[in-house]
Amino acid sequence: MLSTSSFGQKCAEFKIDGSISNSCVNQPSGSIVLTIENGVSPFVVKWNDGSSEMSRSSMKAGKYSVSVNDSNGCSKTASFVVSNYPKIFIDQLSGSNNDIELQFKGGVNPFSVMWINSNGRMNNKSRFLNNPKTGTYIAIVSDANNCSETEKVIIE
């Protein structure tokens, strides 16, 4: 049996930490993985949004708080902030022969592009669409954080 002073000392050593991955804008892709030091399992985890998981994923940007109790009756709380990665902005520039060039702002280099036309995916993975036929094209632009934005291009 623990004495009162050793119980208080054990609880003082009980710590919560977490590793955070940020979220893409408008895409719940953030995560928080808790690490607990000097506690005795099993742990009871209670997040402010009702979750009871040690490892969270598919999280939107925001502030999250968690309370963890261990089997010795020690309790700690912690707060974490999941931020948004920089949003990708796409600009279309037109050239001769209806050529299209995409320019990117925000996001994080390197960028990748996938074009889709009415027949499905195209082999073109460039930010340039040269001499395109009449129709609608969708460009999906992804950045180094695996965040993505889409841009519709209509060639008349």
Question: Overview of this structure, please?
Answer:
With 156 residues, the protein is mainly beta. It folds into 2 domains: 79 residues, Immunoglobulin-like, CATH 2.60.40; 68 residues, Immunoglobulin-like (Sandwich). Helix content is 6%, strand content 51%. A 4-stranded antiparallel beta sheet has the order 10-9-12-13, with no helix packed on it. Strands 1-2-4 form a 3-stranded antiparallel beta sheet. Strands 3-5-6 form a 3-stranded antiparallel beta sheet, with no helix packed on it. A hairpin with a 5-residue loop joins strand 7 and strand 8. The protein is rod-shaped and about 75 Å long.
Name some characteristics of this structure.
6% helix, Immunoglobulin-like, mainly beta, 4-stranded antiparallel β-sheet, 156 residues
List the helices and strands and how they pair.
Blueprint: H1 4-13, E1 15-21, E2 30-37, E3 44-47, E4 55-59, E5 62-69, E6 75-82, E7 88-94, E8 100-106, E9 112-117, E10 120-121, E11 128-129, E12 135-142, E13 148-155
Summarize model confidence as the mean pLDDT: 88
General shape:
rod-shaped
Q: What is the SS-derived class?
A: mainly beta
How many helix segments?
A: 1
CATH architectural group of the largest domain: Sandwich
Low-confidence stretches: 1-6
The helix content is under 10%
In short:
The protein has one helix at 4-13; strands spanning 15-21, 30-37, 44-47, 55-59, 62-69, 75-82, 88-94, 100-106, 112-117, 120-121, 128-129, 135-142, 148-155. The chain is mainly β. The strands form 4 sheets. The chain has a 4-stranded antiparallel beta sheet, with no helix packed on it. A 3-stranded antiparallel beta sheet has the order 1-2-4.
